[in-house]
Amino acid sequence: MKYNNIDFDTYFKNYPNAEGYFGKYGGAYVEGGLKSAMEEITEAYFTICKSTRFIGELRRIRREFQGRPTPISHLERLSTSLGNVQLYAKREDLNHTGAHKLNHCMGEALLAKYMGKKKLIAETGAGQHGVALATAAAYFGLECDIYMGSVDIKKQAPNVARMKILGANVVEVKEGLATLKEAVDAAFLAYSRDYKDSIYCIGSVVGPHPFPMMVRDFQSVVGIEAREQFVGMTGELPDAVVASVGGGSNAMGMFSGFLNDPVDIYGIEPLGRGATLGDHAASLKYGTEGVMHGFNSIMLKDEAGEPAPVYSVASGLDYPSSGPEHAFLRDAGRVRYDAIGDEETIDAFFKLSRLEGIIPAIESAHAVAYAMQLAKKMGRGSVLICLSGRGDKDMDYIIEKYGIR
Asked: In terms of CB atoms within 10 Å, which of 16, 29, 175, 181 comes out highest?
C-alpha cells in the first residue's frame, strides 16, 4: 500500500535511513562525546536486535515479567452510550507498572547490560517512564537517576514514591517551567558528563538517532499484538485506530501494526486550554520545523525561535515537539493528527471509569475523548484505542482540581 509514493510494504526497512532520518526529520544533532555515545548505542543496537539470544530474552521478559500480551477490551457500555460505533481498547494499562513504557525500558536496560553500562539515566513527565525505568534498573541490578520537573513531582506524587521504593534517585529539576522539557534538558546534561558508564534511556520516540527508531521497535509489540487480537475477536480490521501523542511512543507502537492496512489512523495531541501559544502542547497541529534535544521535527516556538512554553493537563504530554516519525507520517498523509482539550479529556476520564470500570491515565483519556467524538461522526464501524496507561497516578490531582463528577 502506498501513500504519497511511500511504499508501506517495505516501510520499516527504509525508515529511518542510515543517518536516522525519516524524510527530512530526525537525525542526530549532537557533538563531541555525545556523538560518539550515540554511535556506540547505534552499533550495539544493530548488533543485538538481530541476535536470537537478545530477542529470546526480551520475549521471555515480556511473557514472564511484564505479563504480555495485554488484552483488548470491548467497551460495550461506552459504545452503547454513543450510538452504533463499537469502541475497543488495547489495555496497556495492564502491562506491568501500569503503562506501555516498560516495553522499551526493559529493552533499553537489556541493551545497557550488553554494553557493560552501570547506570540508567532518564527524564520523566507523568512518571510512568520513570517508574518503568526504575523497575528495569531493579530487575537488571543497575543504578538509576530519574530527572523530573518540580511541577510534575507535585502532580505525580504516587509515581515519585514508586520510583524511590524501586531504588531510583529522583532528581528534582527547578529551572524554567520545571516540567518535561526542563527534565529532558537536565538529563541530557547529566548524560553528557557520564556517558562512558551510563546510557540515556529516552522515554519516547524523540531525541537523536537511534532512539526514535529503537523506541519504536521496542513499542511495536503493542501494534503487532493489537492487530492479531482484533482480527481474532472480530474477524476484521478496525475502521480507525486512535492514540494520544506527546513525544509519541505509545502511538508509534500502536500505529506500527496498522500502517500497511486500509485503516484510518489518528494521533491526538493535547489542546489544553485552547489554541493560544502557551495554552496547549499540540506541536504537530500548530508547530513548525525545528531542532531541539538532538533531533529535527515539528516544534512549538516562541518569538525568538526557541522552544515555546507548553501546557497540558497531562504531564506526559506537555512537550513542545513530537517524534520525527510522527512529523514524517503527518506530511505523508498516512496519519491524521488532531487535538483535544482538557475539558473533553476529563469528561472522557470519568465516563470510561463509570461505564467500563477502567480508570485511564489522563494521557490515555485524550485518545478516549477523541474516539468518543469520532464514533459520533462515523455513525457505524469500529474504533480501536490505545489505552496507554492507568490513572492511579492521576487520581489525587483529578479530585483536587475537578472534584468527583
From this structure: 181
